[in-house]
Structures are given as C-alpha cells and as structure tokens.
Amino acid sequence: MKRNRSDEKTRRAPSGAAVPRPELTEALYRAFFEEWADRGFGALSLERVAARAGAGKAAIYRRFPSRLAFAEAAISTLGLRIALPEVEGTTLQEDILNLLVQTRVVLRHPMVRRILPDLHAEAARSTEMRVINDRVAQARRERAEVLLDRWVCRGELPEGLDRDLALDLLVAPLYWRMVVRGVTPTFAELETQSRAIMAGLSALGMTTTSQ
Fold it and tell me: Is residue 92 pLDDT above 70, yes or no?
C-alpha cells in the first residue's frame, strides 16, 4: 500500500526554527521566578534561569528577545493566575472572607513574598517595569470589578460606590500585613478584617450617596 505523500508532510517535524514546547516555557517561567526571588531582578541572570530549567540560554531567546520581555511574559502569564482567586459566596462578608482566605494562600508563599516588594521597587526605577506592573494590576482590578457588580446587583452595596477606592480597600490591608510587615494572619483575624473591609465599603457607599 502506497503512503500518501501529503500525510507524510503533515506528520513531518518542521524544519528550521525549533517549535517552542509549552512545558519548557512553563519550566522557564518557574525558574525565572525562583532566580528573581533568590537574587532580585537587578541581578537576575538568564544563564542561571536556563540552567534551573534544565535548558540552554537559546531556549529563552527563541521565546523572548530580552530579559524585560521575558519578565513581562512571566508576570502576565503566571501573575494573572494568582492575581485574584475565584470567589463564590452568598453574602458580602462571606465573599470578602473567602477572598482574604484564598489571597492569604498566595501571599504566604515565600517566593511571592520576596518577589512582590522587589517588583514594586523595580517599577519605581524603571518606566518599562512600571508599565508591566500597571498592566497586571489593571487586569486584577478588572476581575475584582466582577465582585463589585455582584454586590451591587444583590443590593449589598450602592450603585454610586467609589469603585476605585473600593478596589484598593479589598486586599490592601492583607497585603500590607503579609508583604510589608511579614505577618501571616490567623483565620479569626481574617474574619475581623473582612468585617472591617465590609464596613469600609459600606461607608464609601454612604459617603457617595450623601454628596
């Protein structure tokens, strides 16, 4: 039986440039963050990143033209996965508490706690890193808008809520305690914090309504 030449062509591996393998790209992202956590972005070496991932430096440059492009891809791809957890509660306080509990899981990771302060420091020094940081933060805020919409639709918060300030309030107290102060709150403390945030959100609504 003769083989179909067109079938052989479709099965044949492409010649020329290698096709990036998704699993290697993921390994490079993980190695990138490990290197960043250990040494800081300023001292980050792409050679060491490649070695951590069990690859050559060429594997990085086949995917990204520069260290900054690598950083943008890594932060955007993996950063958004942990930017805002999925929250499914039945009340405002339950939603806020679930958000805090899930965010605590992310922020208590040693690598995350070392990278985040350095990311903000780099953003203060570098316009390019500021753009990357702002882009990821904006994506997180857009996802949090879904929560605000839910609470407004359920009548738990007013439509005239100051949304920008509300988005700051949602996780800022937890971020300050865990990343800035290095303290991991207990579940009971998260419950107290959720009530305080809920009161703050309600106060924002009342302030907006009275104006």
Answer: yes
pLDDT at 17 over 60: no
Q: Alpha-carbon distance 161 to 158, whole Å?
A: 6
- SS3 breakdown of the chain: % helix, strand, coil, rounded to 5? 75, 0, 25
pTM here is 0.76
State the fold for domain 92-210.
Tetracycline Repressor; domain 2 (1.10.357)
Burial 37-73 (b: 16+ CB within 10 A, else e): beeebeebebebbbebbebeeebbebebeeeeebbbb
Work out the burial of residue 103: count CB atoms within 10 Å of its CB; fewer than 13 is exposed, 13-18 middle, 19 or more buried.
buried
CA 142/CA 148 separation, integer angstroms: 10
| Confidence band for 80, pLDDT divided at 50, 70 and 90 | low
Parse the chain into domains and list their residue ranges. Answer: 18-79, 92-210
Q: Does domain 18-79 have CATH number 1.10.10.60?
A: yes
N- to C-terminal Cα distance for the chain?
83
Look at residue 163 and give its three-state secondary structure. Answer: helix
Q: Using an 8 Å Cβ cutoff, are 52 and 74 in contact?
A: no
Tens digits of residue pLDDT in 126-171:
999 999 889 888 888 888 898 899 999 999 998 888 999 999 999 8
- Taking phi over 0 as left and psi of -120 to 50 as alpha, with beta for the rest, 54 belongs to left
